[in-house]
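Structure ticket #2291
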Amino acid sequence: MLCAALAFSLGSASAQISTSSGSTVVAPSESSSNTIQLADDSGSPVSGMEDSAALPAAPAANGAGGGQYDNRSRGGGGGNGIMSHMTYEVGGGFNAPSSDSSPYITWGGNFTVGAGYRWNQNLTLNLEYQFIDSKLPGQIIAEAGATGGHDHIWSLTLDPVYEFNPKSAIGFYATGGYGFYRKVTSFTDPQQSQYCDYFYGCGIITQNVVVGHFSSNQGGWSIGGGLEHRFAGWNGDGKMRIFAEARYLDVLSPAVNGITPNGLGVTTVGADTKIVPVTVGLRF
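Resolution: structure written out below.
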């Protein structure tokens, strides 16, 4: 009897110890349940602590992310579109005759406007329109029997520009080109005409009127170089530049021998019109 009671007591104690050990094993699960409950209360997606620890770290900022706030220009920026390679220019200046053409043309002014495509940092191809206005020498005017005269030259040319140091604030470049030129030589005389003004009424004024002219269409070429200064811009990456350049221009005009423009006196002009245009302007 005593032995049976002792055996029953030992079996009960063993069962209690086993049950207690099972509760200890469950404790982490209870802790996980508490974690899930806290996550639910905070409004975050349901997840255990182990899952949160396994999430990857946030990606570090790189060049692509920085581009959202990076205003600096890059070659072909914004997806390398055509417009990102386009350049524009406008300028004006004066022109002087070469020694060969000085008997037939004198000093004057010029105006230039153009647009181009920038192939790379060094090379740009421009399409340029230029207008040149130069006076005629007194000898030519006297031969025609007029009192004044001028040469007007219009041109449309392709002009490559090669920059030697494109990343510098001050750079040097070489340029030239070939294209179509139209030259019109006109002779003028002063004539009186009536002029009316809204404030002062009508009156007689004297103005120069074209009384004779001749013209020609031909090709022409130029070669030269220049200096440009790049503006810094907001981030040191400005695209606007001020430039100054000089070219040697040869308009391949034919010789004029013994013509009488519009009944004026006999006029003779040598072949080719060679001048040196000096231009100052902006590129952007």
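Closing remark: Residues 1-44, 46-53, 61-79 have pLDDT under 50 and may be disordered.
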